Amino acid sequence: MSFMSWLLRRGVLQPPSADRPGSPWWRAVNERIIRDGCEAVALSGNLPGPTSSSTVDHWMSFVDEPTARNWYRAHNGSVVSAYLEHREMAEAENAAERFFMNVVLCRVLYAHALVAAPRMSLGWLRPLAPFLGDPRLGMTGIFLQLSRILPDEYPLRDGVGFYLDAELGFGRLVDFGVIVPRFQQLYEWSARELRVPALVDCVRDGALTYAWAFEDRDVWRPPDSFILRMAHRALPPARNGR
User: Fold this and answer.
1) Tens-place pLDDT, residues 84-107
2) CA 112 to each of CA 132, 193, 199, 221: distance values in angstroms, whole numbers, following the listed order
3) What is the mean predicted confidence (pLDDT) over 195-209?
4) What is the rounded CA–CA span in Å between residue 111 and residue 118?
5) Rounded Cα distance, 77 and 83, in Å
6) What angle do CA 92, 188, 239 make, to 5 degrees?
7) 3-state helix/strand/coil string of the chain
């Protein structure tokens, strides 16, 4: 809810007729999540008809068995499908907006992996992973928290470097110390888990490439710092999936 409140404050969901129109891409992504969820509610209420997509099947599985893993599979399935469907809209956004589209996606995928693939996501600290990723406990808000470094405005006005410099220590540690070394593994695992093979097209050689040129991959390289080097040594990526 805090993430949605932040989107509303930024104005990205404003209609095209508003004095300051929002983002067609953000509206499309949110509409897909809402539509899939509403269809699942209707079907679970015994309204007739087949599911319209595999993402709704994930939501129906969550209705039948409301576990944290099933919630992430449903939510992230809708998110990923919307990302892929509206890639051309994403390309029309400026560089800073496109950069943070990638950040949001990798963070929600990582939160899912904390619950469903704890060894891959957190190494020897895997006993903590399900707790940190459980959406019912509010800890996942930490992974999606961007409001402390991004202004409540749309579109973003500064370059990517400006916002990277403004990122707080904990966010930088999570992103560059834990998630970035797992990019390739995380997206390949998520593609299998969500049954969306095309998701692997959003990563290449450990760099995120959703509406982002591989040639500009330097933004995903961790800065040189003692804390990040220690994080990489303490929590190296697992050699295999789980």
Assistant:
1) 999 999 999 999 999 999 999 999
2) 10, 10, 15, 23
3) 97
4) 10
5) 10
6) 140
7) CHHHHHHHHHCCCCCCCCCCCCCHHHHHHHHHHHHHHHHHHHHHCCCCCCCCCHHHHHHHHHHHCCCHHHHHHHHHHHHHHHHHHCHHHHHCCCHHHHHHHHHHHHHHHHHHHHHHCHHHHHHHHHHHHHHHHCCCCCCCHHHHCCCCCCCCCCCCCCCHHHHHHHCCHHHHHHHHHHHHHHHHHHHHHHHHHHCCHHHHHHEECCEECCCCCHHHHHHHCCCCCHHHHHHHHHCCCCCCCC
Pairing state between β 203-204 and 207-208: antiparallel
Cα gap 68→136, rounded to integer Å? 8
* Per-residue tokens: 211: 């509406």
Contact 85, 32 (CB under 8 A): yes
Are 8 and 23 spatial neighbours (Cβ–Cβ below 8 Å)? no
Type of residue at 175: D
Please report, as a single letter, which amino acid is at residue 86.
Answer: H
Cβ within 8 Å of residue 198, ≥6 positions away: 84, 191
> Cα–Cα distance between 191 and 197 in angstroms, integer?
5
Alpha-carbon distance values, 62 to 43, 182, 211 (Å): 13, 27, 30
**Global pTM value:** 0.93
